[in-house]
Amino acid sequence: MNKYHRERLARLMPNGKPRWIRVYDNGEKSYDRYTVVFTGNYDKDIPGYGKSYQYVGMSSSPSHPQGFCQHGECPHIIDWPTYGHLGKKIRFEDLPEDCQKVVISDYRHLWKLCDVCGVSGAKFYESPYKWLCKEHKPQ
Ligand SMILES: [Zn+2]
């Protein structure tokens, strides 16, 4: 990573945590307990994600077979002007670890960071349909 990409990554992921998200918890053990809204000026026309504002709803174990993880998009951002329908605001680090993994993976995709290692300056590959750095690009 050159200086530009190091600084870009430090802005996008200070202390390894996604900066441009808002996280909500509705407090119930419902299938869609957690909602994460992707904010900031990412490219709204990204391969595989459509042309609008992204969010993801999750249960506390989104990768479990009985868990829940649903990506959504909307022409407007879903937590403005009101977010009461989503629950209360929590911090990224308050999310269960499984949910954090989903969010980081989505965030990397939206901000064009390497899917494997998270560095800035990745390129998009149709197969395996991911942003990947030089080191992790397909052979
Ligand atoms: Zn990489």
Describe the structure.
The protein has 139 residues and is of the alpha+beta class. It has one domain (3-113). It is built from two helices and seven strands. The site of zinc ion has 7 residues, from loops.
Task: Fill in the keyword field for this structure.
2 helices, 17% helix, globular, binds zinc ion, 139 residues, five-stranded antiparallel sheet, alpha+beta, two-stranded antiparallel sheet
Annotate the secondary structure layout.
Layout: H1 3-12, E1 21-25, E2 34-38, E3 53-58, E4 69-74, E5 88-90, H2 97-110, E6 123-125, E7 130-132
Antiparallel strand pairs: 1-2, 1-5, 2-3, 3-4, 6-7
The protein binds zinc ion (ZN).
Please summarize the sheet with the most strands: 5 strands, antiparallel
Low-confidence stretches: none
Secondary structure: number of strands: 7
Q: Mean pLDDT, as a whole number?
A: 93
Binned, the helix content reads 10-25%
Order of helices and strands: HEEEEEHEE
| Distinct small-molecule ligands in the complex | zinc ion
Oligomer: single chain
Question: Quick gist of this model?
Answer:
The chain is an alpha+beta fold and 139 residues long. Helices cover 17% and strands 22% of the residues. The chain has one domain (3-113).
